[in-house]
Write a structure and sequence with these properties.
- 46% of the residues lie in helices and 15% in strands.
- By secondary structure, it is α/β, with parallel strands linked by helices.
- It folds into three domains: 4-163 and 292-317, AglA-like glucosidase (LDH C-terminal domain-like, Alpha-Beta Complex); 166-281, no CATH class; 379-449, no CATH class.
- A six-stranded parallel β-sheet has the order 3-2-1-4-5-6, with helices on both faces.
- Helix 16 runs antiparallel to helix 17 (405-413).
- The N and C termini lie far apart (57 Å).
Length: 456
């Protein structure tokens, strides 16, 4: 069935090109229109040209459009894939890390809540109510947890947040020498806070195999990686195993990457818990990622405009593991499947309010996205991981709703890297003065939205 798919933040060319490839390889969506929207004209043009040429390479019947106008992209859309970001782009993140370091915070761990990206998500959802009220928004940009909760509370738009962190279970299986395709698993929770409650291999509990690996092989594995200059996979890092020992369930995907504050106090601590150079979540690590992205973009520009360089030769003809297009296929063509999604709880995960977005398995078909009810997580995980994350999210959304600047300050005061009240105030003032990396006509100024209480 032909649909209109609008990709917001299409300048994230690697992700957008993966979507194009998956649509090209999904015959049930042939005849559809893909509309790319981005405010960066150069990146928009690159992905538009690549998309057209990729469809040619794969003989796929798809139409492509490009626009810098949000209303044009939304008009008549059946699906909106939202990957746009204001503060999670590399320029903004690097500048913020530099500023926070000057005030004594390692790698930006100030605790100050998100604003710009959440406001953008809400703006898009509100525009969808007017221009494509029956469309689904598939949220790919962070923060998925807060954004999914916000949009479903404040609008009537159908929202599904998606993340690929749950594939961490495959990393666990592979390290144990198991075929990931023969693993049965389940990892519910909140986005970036999910826990593997079920782990079976060919019908047998595989957790004892993980216990054996930790006892007999883990130290040798970490030592060998470091001796040979290899990165330790975050999913099998000392941090991940330590969290497993603390809570009795393996943290999956971005959960061990985040973990508790004690894993992230400084570079030496990061090296202890993750890998020899601290991994990607360090200033040097992000610089390496940025250089890699820049190199990839240059490669993609070449592929977009050089007839001798074909996209299919560079990026292949096999589907990605992303869930967006298969979910669309399920909703439109009744191609049923089970997926890991972020949607309002509505009783799926015990102990969490119905209007809070949870990450759970769901069946997708013509009837919609139907979450599966999962057993309760252990009380220790709920009390020490899930509930604190829920309350932090609620503070973030309340600050956004009320514009109370003192709530932003409170979150910085709660950071374990804050040593004095004055340090927190200076940090808030500095971040509020920081210029966003997009033209101001696209977003509301954070200083206009947030004000100190009258009696401050």
């Amino acid at each position: 069935m032909a649909v209109k798919v609008s990709v917001f933040g299409a300048g994230s060319v690697v992700f957008s090109l993966g979507l194009v490839k998956d649509m090209c390889l999904t015959e049930g969506l042939h005849g559809s229109t893909v509309c790319f929207m981005d405010i960066n004209e150069e990146r928009l043009d690159v992905i538009y040209e690549l998309g057209k040429r990729y469809a040619e390479d794969l003989s796929a019947d798809l139409k492509f459009e490009r626009t810098q106008d949000r209303a044009v992209a939304l008009e008549g859309a059946d699906f909106v894939i939202h990957t746009a970001t204001i503060t999670h782009n590399e320029y903004f993140m690097k500048r913020r890390r530099e500023l926070t370091a000057e005030h004594g915070y390692f790698y930006g761990h100030t605790g100050m809540p998100e604003y710009h990206n959440l406001q953008l998500m809400l703006d898009v959802a509100e525009d969808m109510e007017a221009l494509c009220p029956d469309a689904w928004i598939l949220l790919a940009g962070n923060p998925v947890y807060e954004g999914t909760t916000l949009m479903t509370r404040e609008t009537d738009i159908k929202v599904c947040g998606l993340c690929h962190g749950h594939y961490g279970y495959r990393g666990v299986a592979s390290q144990l020498g198991l075929d990931p395709d023969k693993v049965s698993w389940q990892a519910p929770g909140l986005n970036h806070n999910i826990w593997m409650t079920d782990f079976y291999y060919e019908g047998k509990d595989a957790y004892p195999m993980l216990d054996d690996w930790i006892r007999e092989e883990s130290e040798a594995f970490w030592t060998e990686c470091e001796a040979n200059g290899k990165e330790i996979p975050t999913q099998m890092s000392r941090s991940a195993i330590h969290q497993y020992k603390m809570y009795g369930l393996m943290p999956i995907g971005d959960t061990p990457r985040r973990g508790g504050w004690w894993y992230h106090t400084d570079l030496e601590t990061r090296k202890r818990w993750y890998t020899r150079n601290g991994g990607k979540d360090t200033p040097e690590g992000r610089d390496r990622v940025l250089k890699s992205k820049d190199k990839k973009f240059e490669q993609m520009k070449e592929a977009a405009y050089d007839e001798k360089v074909r996209p299919v030769d560079l990026f292949g003809d096999k589907k990605t593991t992303e869930q967006h297009i298969p979910i669309m296929d399920g909703l439109v063509n009744d191609t049923e499947g089970q997926f890991q999604v972020n949607i309002p709880n509505n009783g799926a995960l015990p102990g969490i309010p119905d209007d809070v977005a949870v990450e759970v398995p769901a069946i997708v078909n013509k009837k919609g996205i139907q979450p599966l009810r999962v057993p309760p997580l252990p009380n220790k995980i709920m009390l020490e991981c899930i509930y604190p994350d829920w309350l932090r999210m609620e503070r973030t959304l309340e600050a956004l709703k009320t514009g109370d600047k003192s709530m932003m300050l409170f979150s910085v005061l709660e950071s374990h890297q804050t040593r004095t009240y004055e340090q927190a105030v200076e940090m808030v003032d500095t971040l509020f003065a920081m210029e966003p990396s997009v033209p101001m006509q696209f977003i509301e100024d954070i200083n206009d939205h947030y004000q100190w209480p009258e009696n401050w």
